[in-house]
Amino acid sequence: RLSRGRGGLSGPAIHPIAVRMVHDVYRAVAKPAGVPIIGLGGVLRWEDAAEFILVGASAVGV
Q1: 7-46: buried (b, 16+ CB within 10 Å) or exposed (e) per residue?
Q2: Residue 51: in which H helix or E strand, if any?
Q3: Contact between residue 41 and residue 13 where contact means Cβ atoms under 8 Å apart
Q4: How far apart are the C-alpha atoms of 44 and 28, rounded to whole Å?
Q5: By the 8 A CB rule, do 24 and 2 touch?
Q6: Predicted TM-score of the model (pTM)
Q7: What residue ranges do the domains of the chain occupy?
């Protein structure tokens, strides 16, 4: 199941959750179907963006 339920987080607090979601969606949907995905949430430094790329994002929103 890809849904986590509730929202209400933003900024640095959402980053680890967003990275995990990109990872899960990449493995379940994007990789098998060849669909690009955009990682976003809590990107404050280049290292934050790199994390999204490393787990499967094709691009990163800032």
Answers
A1: eeeeeeebbeebbebbbbbbeeebeeeeeebebbbbbeee
A2: helix 46-54
A3: no
A4: 27
A5: yes
A6: 0.84
A7: 17-61
Q: Which residue bears the tokens 């995990």?
A: 20
Closest by Cα among 34, 10, 30, 46 to 18: 10
Which residues, including other chains, have CB under 8 Å from residue 13's CB and lie 6 or more apart?
42
pLDDT tens digit sequence for 8-61: 778 889 999 999 999 999 999 999 999 999 999 999 999 999 999 999 999 999
In terms of residues, how long is the chain? Answer: 62
Q: Please tell me what DSSP assigns to residue 39.
A: E
Structure tokens that stand for 24 in this block = 């899960």
